[in-house]
Design brief:
The chain is of the alpha+beta class and 665 residues long. Among the domains are: 145 residues, Rossmann fold, CATH 3.40.50.620; 159 residues, Isoleucyl-tRNA Synthetase, Domain 1 (Orthogonal Bundle); 110 residues, OB fold (Dihydrolipoamide Acetyltransferase, E2P). The chain contains 21 helices and 27 strands. Helix 13 packs antiparallel against helix 19 and helix 14 packs parallel to helix 17. Bound molecules: 5'-O-[(L-methionyl)-sulphamoyl]adenosine. Its cofactor is Zn(2+).
C-alpha cells in the first residue's frame, strides 16, 4: 500500500437516547482496530463516528427528564465521548447531527433532491395515537394498539415528503451485481436483493408531527425524517454542502461503512439511492455485522439486558474487553456475551498464552543473561519453524483485515504466541542453562522468543493499543518500535529487557463468577427498589388530584326495594349527533333491546358522536320522560358516566358479547 493511500471508515452514528452499551462498543472497537491497522500500514485514515440526535424518541426522553432535547443530548454525548476515550477509540472526527454545518448540508441535499424531482410531496398513511401524539406504521403496532401506551390507535394521514427510492431499484440491483464487494457479508446480499424485488416503496422523508428535527428549508412545518438526516452525516462530515471541512474530495467515497445488520438496508438501499440521485460516487463497501446477544436476545435498553462497557473496562481492563469483542464473535455472525466466556478468554489467551510468554521470556533473559540477549549466528530447524510462522504473520493478518475476518487475524497472532510457548517447552532453556557449553544456544533461543514477541506486539497494537507498548517496554524498546516497517523477523539485533507487571493477571473463575452473580443480584434489587419507589411516587402524585375532584356529599339512604325500582339496562348507541342548539348536549339514539329511545346527555365537551356510535353502555330506563330544549326533544333515560380526576368524563362500555337489553344489577 502506498504512503498516501487514503482510507475512510465510519461507524453508525449512535442515538444518544440513553448511555451506550457494549453492543455499540462492539462496532466501534472493530472500526478502531481497522483504522489503527490501516494507519500502521501508512494509510491516511479518516475514522468517523458520532451521534444521531434528532427524532421523536429523543424529544420524548427530554420531555420526561424535564429538559430541552439539546440539553438532553449534550449530556449523553459527553458520556459517549468519555466512553470512546476510555476504550481507546482513535476516531479522527466526531459528528453530531445537531452541528450547524451538518444541518446546513442536509438542508442543501434535501432542497436539491426536491428541486430535481427526486423528493415530492405526498401523504403518509399510518396509525395515530392521540394521547401520545404519535404516528405508527402497521409493523410498529403491538396487537393492533399503540406500542407506547397500549391504547387504541386511529387510521391517520399526514402530509409528508417522499424520496423516490423506487426509481433506483434497477440501478441498485445492477450495483450489487457489478460490485460483489459492496454488501458484506455475502449472505446478507440476498436479503437486500429479495427486499428490492418484492417492490421497492418510496421513502417517507419528512414529518409534521415531529418537532425535534432539521426543518425542511422550503416548507418549515416539516422536519426531515431521521434517515436522510442521519445518512448524510457520512458526507457532511467531510465538508459536502458546508464550509466547515474541505476533505470531501480527499476521502469520499468511503472505503467502509460498518453497521449492525439491522440497519444494513438503509445503508445499501436508501443511502446509495440518495447518492445516485445526487450524482455522487458510492461507498466501496458496507459491512453488516451480527449482534452481541445476551440471554438469547439482542442487547437493548428497552429489554433491560444491557451490559455496561464502563463497568467491564474498570474491572477487567480496556484491552481485555477489546480483545474479547474482537476475538470471540465470528465477525458477521451473532455471538453470545456471557461472563464465563469473557473470563475464560481473558485467562486462556491473554493471561496464559500472551502474559506468560512475555513474563517467562523476560525472566529468563534477566536470569541467564542479566537482561541482554543478542542475535546469534546459526539456527536449528525448530527456530526456523517459529521464524517462518512469525515472518508470514504480517501477510496473513493483512489479508484477514482486508477481508474483515478480524477474529481470524487475532487467531493468527495467537497461533504464533502459542507456538512460541511450545518452543519454550521444546527447547527447555532451564536445561540448557545447566551447561555452559549451551550458552550460545540458550541466548539464541531467548533471542528468537524476543523476536516473536516483538513482531506480535507490533501487530497487536491495532487491537490492544495499551498492551502493545507495555510489551515493547518489557522488551526494552520504545513506542517507535511499533511500526510494521520493522516487523521483519530478525530486524532487531539485540534486546535489553525490563521486567514489568503481569500484562493480564489470571482471574479465579469460580470466585469471579460468584462475585458477578452477587453484583448482578444487588443491581437487580436496586432496580426493583427504584421501580417500586417510582410507582409509589406516581401513585402519591396522582392521589391528591383524585381526592380533590371526588364529590363526597351523600344522598339519603334508600331501601333495597327502592333500588330495585330503578331499571338499569345495557343499550346500544345506534346514532349520535351534536345539537345545533347546544354545545353541551349530545343527542343519542339508543336501542334498549325492545325499542329505540332518545337520550340527551351533557357530554359533548368530552365525546364526539363517533366515539359512541356502536358502543354498548348502561342506561336508566324507567326515568320519567323529560322534555328538553323548550320541548323540542324528550329525553327518555340517562347514561352511566363518571367524573374523572382531571375534570373530564368517563363512560364505561360493555363488551361486544353483552346482549343489548341485559339487566344491570
Ligand atoms: N442512529 C442509527 C444509525 C444511523 S447511521 C447513519 C442507529 N443508532 S443506534 O444507536 O441504534 O446504533 C445502532 C448500531 O449500534 C448498530 O447498527 C450496531 O452497529 C450497534 N449495536 C447496537 N446494539 C448492538 C448489539 N447488541 N450488538 C452489536 N451491535 C449493536 O441505529
Amino acid at each position: 500500500m502506498s504512503e498516501h493511500k487514503t482510507f475512510y471508515i465510519t461507524t453508525p452514528i449512535y442515538y444518544p437516547s440513553d448511555k451506550l452499551h457494549i453492543g455499540h462498543s462492539y462496532t466501534t472497537v472493530a472500526c478502531d482496530a481497522l483504522a489503527r491497522f490501516k494507519r500502521m500500514q501508512g494509510c491516511d485514515v479518516m475514522f468517523l463516528t458520532g451521534t444521531d440526535e434528532h427524532g421523536q424518541k429523543i424529544q420524548d426522553k427530554a420531555a420526561d427528564a424535564g429538559v430541552t432535547p439539546k440539553e438532553y443530548v449534550d449530556k449523553i454525548v459527553a458520556t459517549v465521548k468519555d466512553l470512546w476515550k476510555l476504550m481507546d477509540i482513535s476516531y479522527d472526527r466526531f459528528i453530531r447531527t445537531t452541528d450547524d454545518y451538518h444541518m446546513e448540508s442536509c438542508q442543501k441535499i434535501f432542497t436539491k433532491l426536491y428541486e430535481q424531482g427526486d423528493i415530492y410531496k405526498g401523504e403518509y398513511t399510518g396509525h395515530y395515537c392521540k394521547p401520545c401524539e404519535s404516528f405508527w406504521t402497521d409493523s410498529q403496532l403491538v396487537d393492533g394498539k399503540c406500542p407506547e401506551c397500549g391504547r387504541e390507535v386511529y387510521d391517520a394521514h399526514e402530509e409528508a415528503y417522499f424520496f423516490k427510492t423506487g426509481k433506483y431499484a434497477d440501478r441498485l440491483l445492477k450495483l450489487y451485481e457489478e460490485n460483489p464487494q459492496f454488501i458484506q457479508p455475502e449472505s446478507r446480499k440476498n436479503e437486500m436483493i429479495a427486499f428490492i424485488k418484492q417492490g421497492l416503496q418510496d421513502t417517507c422523508v419528512s414529518r409534521t408531527s415531529v418537532k425535534w428535527g432539521i426543518p425542511v428549508p422550503f416548507d418549515p412545518k416539516h422536519t426531515m425524517y431521521v434517515w436522510v438526516d442521519a445518512l448524510s452525516n457520512y458526507i457532511s462530515a467531510l465538508g459536502y454542502g458546508n464550509e466547515k471541512y474541505d476533505e470531501y474530495s480527499k476521502f469520499w467515497p468511503a472505503d467502509l461503512h460498518m453497521v449492525g445488520k439491522e440497519i444494513l438496508r438503509f445503508h445499501t438501499i436508501l443511502w446509495p439511492a440518495m447518492l445516485m440521485a445526487l450524482d455522487l460516487p458510492l461507498p466501496k463497501r458496507v459491512f453488516g455485522h451480527g449482534w452481541l446477544l445476551m440471554n438469547g436476545g439482542k442487547m437493548s435498553k428497552s429489554v433491560g439486558n444491557v451490559v455496561d462497557p464502563v463497568i467491564l473496562c474498570d474491572r477487567y481492563g480496556v484491552d481485555a474487553i477489546r480483545y474479547f469483542l474482537l476475538r470471540e464473535i465470528p465477525f458477521g455472525n451473532d455471538g453470545m456475551f456471557t461472563n464465563e466466556a469473557l473470563i475464560n478468554r481473558i485467562n486462556s489467551d491473554l493471561a496464559n498464552d500472551l502474559g506468560n510468554l512475555l513474563s517467562r521470556t523476560v525472566a529468563m533473559c534477566e536470569k541467564y543473561f542479566g537482561g541482554t540477549v543478542h542475535k546469534v549466528a546459526g539456527t536449528e530447524a525448530i527456530d526456523t519453524e517459529l521464524e517462518t510462522m512469525t515472518s508470514e504473520l504480517l501477510g496473513k493478518v493483512t489479508a484477514d483485515m482486508d477481508s474483515l475476518t478480524i477474529p481470524q487475524a487475532l487467531m493468527e497472532i495467537f497461533a504464533v504466541i502459542q507456538r512460541a510457548n511450545k518452543y519454550i517447552d521444546e527447547t527447555a532453556p532451564w536445561a540448557l542453562a545447566k551447561d555452559e557449553a549451551n550458552r550460545a544456544r540458550l541466548e539464541s533461543v531467548l533471542y528468537h522468543l524476543c523476536e516473536a514477541l516483538r513482531v506480535c506486539g507490533i501487530l497487536l497494537n491495532a487491537y490492544l493499543p495499551s498492551t502493545a507498548p507495555k510489551m515493547m517496554e518489557q522488551l526494552g524498546l520504545d513506542a517507535s518500535a511499533i511500526d510494521v516497517e520493522k516487523a521483519a523477523y530478525g530486524a532487531q539485533e539485540s534486546y535489553t529487557v525490563h521486567k514489568g507487571e503481569a500484562l493480564f493477571p489470571r482471574i479465579d473463575v469460580a470466585k469471579e463468577i460468584a462475585h458477578l452473580k452477587e453484583e448482578d443480584e444487588k443491581r437487580k434489587a436496586a432496580a426493583e427498589a427504584a421501580k417500586k419507589a417510582k410507582e409509589e411516587a406516581e401513585k402519591k402524585a396522582a392521589a391528591p388530584a383524585e381526592e380533590s375532584n371526588v364529590d363526597f356529599t351523600h344522598e339519603a339512604e334508600i331501601s333495597y326495594d327502592d333500588f330495585c325500582k330503578v331499571e338499569l339496562r345495557v343499550a346500544e348507541v345506534r346514532a349520535c349527533e351534536n345539537l345545533k342548539e347546544s354545545k353541551k348536549l349530545l343527542h343519542l339514539t339508543v336501542f334498549d333491546g325492545e325499542r329505540e329511545r332518545c337520550i340527551l346527555s351533557g357530554i359533548a365537551k368530552w365525546f364526539k358522536p363517533e366515539d359512541l356510535i356502536g358502543k354498548k353502555l348502561g342506561i336508566v330506563c324507567n326515568l320519567a320522560p323529560r322534555p328538553m330544549m323548550k320541548g323540542k326533544y324528550v329525553s327518555e333515560g340517562m347514561i352511566f358516566a363518571a367524573d374523572t380526576a382531571d375534570g373530564g368524563c368517563s363512560i364505561p362500555f360493555y363488551s361486544d358479547d353483552t346482549p343489548v337489553g341485559a339487566r344491570i344489577h
